[in-house]
Amino acid sequence: MASFDSNESSQTNFSAFYCEFSEEFKYILLPVSYALVFVIGLALNATALYVMVFRTKRWNPATIYMFNLTMCDTLYVLTLPFLIYYYADENDWPFSEPFCKAIRFLFYANLYGSILFLCCISLLRFIGICYPVRSLGWVSARQAKLISVAVWACVLLCQAPVLYFSRIRDTESERLCYDTTSPELFDDFLVYSSVVSVIMFALPFMVVMVCYGLMVRKLLEPGAGGGERGGRIASRSKQKSVKMIIIVLAAFMLCFLPFHLTRSLYYSFRYLRQVNPAQVSCSLVEGSSVAYKITRPLASANSCVDPILYFLAGQDVRSNLARKNRLSSPKSKNRNQNLTTQL
Description:
single chain; Rhopdopsin 7-helix transmembrane proteins; 12 helices
């Protein structure tokens, strides 16, 4: 989920401390990648919402977390057409400053909302695998709703400063929509961004890794017999858990981790260059900026990865749809009843 512009123009020259380098590649990379994320993400998330709202009768805690995760992704995907236009027009923002703030805010709300809800889903599965008996009293749909409200409140509160930092600036040939902030506020933004990254990415990432390590150890233990039927149920549960582990780890390793690493490096080099130009060369700043911009589409791609978690590991979607189809085909049911009566 990414929509950043740290330099915000193809030629950066705010002061003697800043370097000048071309960013022409992003005017192709970002519109194309965002267009792909928009088409694929909108289709997958719309399908997931349809199944949850119209085809799922009983919402368990996992369904509640997945619904909130899907809402995060859908809100962000709907902002992408504006970013596609902005970058295709080479950083010329045609809309108002409040709209620029809203677009930037929705990106970060999606990014950290997705991370926190994936963390909730991981903790839920961890409790169910490692403490199956105790989990019956620990988790409920009501608790999941309260936790979801708390997650949204945390995300909105922590990302509210983005509405202050995000600004627009008119130049001779274009209107910039800052993703970070204006140059004079960059030092404050760096502190804010670092704190948010630790609280809303590093800590949840550590929690997810610990949970999955304990889950893998539990899944590798020889299971209790429980008869043939019990063995089949245990096998299906293990397969679902393994799928979830793979998908969530893929989201963190491919979407979130590269983005946060390259962003931290770029922000650090940019700050050190500003403090002491002799300490960091322009080529190092440029290299970190390029790496950072390449990972921005990867962060956006989590909007496409999250629905896959729902379809493959979150809920028995195919079973629900098959059951619904059987119930909605009276002809087939009557035909089977007639055949049984004749026999």
